[in-house]
Design a protein that fits this description.
single chain; 382 residues; alpha/beta; five-stranded parallel β-sheet; two-stranded parallel ribbon; 13 helices; 9 strands
Length: 382
């Protein structure tokens, strides 16, 4: 049975769109939303999006496979195959929505958690794991997919993005740059400096802040007295808060911000209001600093569940689609497991290569010391 024939027969309760302006007021923060947690499609006066059933199923597939990859990576770390892993659990909509808003010629500067954006850029998921296994410093060429290597230093990638965007503007290129960072990074001086430079030089950059509400164990309310997106006002460019668990809203808002940048209208700050469902990294224990009730409340806003509800109620996907996707998900998990375990150990001297273009006396000295250190083990064995 085809999806189209199923759609013709099933009631389309959620396909009816409701004006966001008519929604009842609540204690929830004001944000751009196009798909409610209950899977109901709503309208927003400033952001429109009209996707085909194929495109909607594509977004759902992206989120499901990204979550599956993320879960596999977490399991591999627990099994000792990875040294560390930073999970994106709960943030799939923010990453897939914004990632699918990008054009091929746009350039991405991620943190260390943008696995969904990497997926959208065509980076093989297994390439993300080499650094966390300790066998390389990043397993992909940034120029191939216009996706920079992961950045561990908090907030520094926003300066890299700003400088790159300034270069794009000087070259007269019709492209934009996007920088990802978290709510914790928004308190870093590097981020403040990047806001200043991008505003003054009208750089074509979008700052995409995934506010998952916890900077490790520090809640957002201990970092700011105003919503994060309002910080943009002080620098002279617009900011917008979007429902980070709504993939449609994230796509629409990011697309609009990127188009604004390409028109030469400067930077935009997008705050995706979402939630980190898991630990900050696999070395963290969130039960030490946040309540289970908080997580349970956000589980009801799960980004994948709400899109599935909409797909089913609108008749845009049938059971065969979900079964096929589950099979594809398991295949991906198996491929990731096998690829990680097959990664060769690096040459121990490779760490000294490419530090300087023309070599350096201090690096040569350190290399010699390391060789002597290794040789001492062989001598002890004799």
């Amino acid at each position: 049975m085809t999806v189209e024939s199923t759609a013709a027969r099933k009631p389309r309760r959620s396909s009816k769109r409701v004006s966001a302006a008519k929604k009842p007021q609540s204690s929830e923060p004001q944000l751009v939303q196009l798909l409610t947690p209950e899977g109901e499609r709503v309208e927003h006066p400033d952001y429109e999006i009209d996707l085909t059933p194929d495109e909607l199923r594509g977004l759902y597939r992206d989120m499901v496979l990204t979550r599956r990859f993320d879960a596999e990576a977490t399991a591999l770390q627990r099994q000792g195959e990875l040294g560390l892993w930073a999970s994106l659990l709960g943030q799939e909509a923010a990453q897939i929505g914004s990632g699918r808003a990008l054009r091929d010629d746009d350039y991405v500067f991620p943190t260390y958690r943008e696995h969904g954006v990497a997926w959208c850029r065509g980076v093989d998921p297994t390439n993300l794991l080499g650094m966390f296994r300790g066998v390389n410093h990043g397993g992909w060429d940034p120029t191939t997919n216009n996706f920079h290597l992961y950045t561990i230093v908090i907030g520094s990638q926003t300066l890299h993005a700003t400088g790159y965007a300034m270069g794009v503007a000087k070259d007269g290129a019709d492209s934009a740059v996007i920088a990802y960072f978290g709510d914790g990074a928004s308190s870093q001086g590097d981020v403040a400096e990047s806001f200043t430079f991008s505003a003054v030089y009208n750089a074509p950059v979008v700052f995409f802040c995934q506010n998952n509400q916890w900077a490790i164990s520090e809640p957002t309310e201990k970092q700011t007295r105003v919503p994060l997106y309002q910080r943009a006002q002080g620098y002279g460019f617009p900011g917008v808060r979007v429902d980070g668990n709504d993939v449609l809203a994230c796509l629409a808002v990011t697309r609009s911000a990127l188009e604004r940048a390409r028109r030469g209208e400067g930077p935009t700050l997008v705050e995706a209001f979402t939630y980190r469902m898991g630990a900050h990294t696999t070395s963290d224990d969130p039960t030490k600093y946040r309540a289970d009730e908080e997580r349970q409340a956000w589980e009801a806003k799960d980004p994948i569940l709400r899109l599935r509800t909409y797909l089913e109620n609108a008749g845009h996907a049938d059971e065969a689609f979900f079964i096929s996707l589950e099979e594809e998900s398991e295949t991906l998990g198996k491929r990731v497991r096998e690829a990680v375990r097959a990664m060769p150990d690096p040459d121990h001297l490779a760490i000294f290569e490419n530090v300087y273009a023309d070599g350096h006396a201090l690096v040569d000295e350190e290399r010699a010391q390391f060789l002597a250190y290794q040789a001492s083990f062989a001598e002890e064995g004799n």
